[in-house]
Design goal:
The radius of gyration is 21 Å and the shape is elongated. The chain has a two-stranded antiparallel ribbon with strand order 1-2. By secondary structure, the chain is an alpha+beta fold. It has helices at residues 31-44, 61-66, and strands at 10-15, 24-30.
Length: 76
């Protein structure tokens, strides 16, 4: 994708499915992310992405008791 000035602003990504039911274009990837991926590949040989480091767990009575939570619904 280019803007009216001819500058690259994004790259369309393709949809690939294992069933082959639909293939086409998906959302565009912003050029800033493409540049980061390219720089990582050139410098490190692989893409380095941030990891938030969280896990989501459903809260039930057992989890609420173990974690000393006041409610036994939702996630923690």
């Amino acid at each position: 994708m280019v803007n009216i000035k001819g500058e690259l602003i994004g790259i369309n990504s393709a949809i690939a499915t294992s069933s082959g039911a639909y293939q086409g274009y998906s959302f565009a990837i912003p050029v800033s992310l493409v540049k980061k991926v390219m720089d990582d590949l050139l410098e490190f040989g692989q893409v380095q992405r941030g990891l938030l480091g969280i896990q989501i767990e459903d809260v039930n009575a057992s989890v609420a008791e173990d974690r000393n939570l006041k409610v036994n619904q939702g996630c923690w």
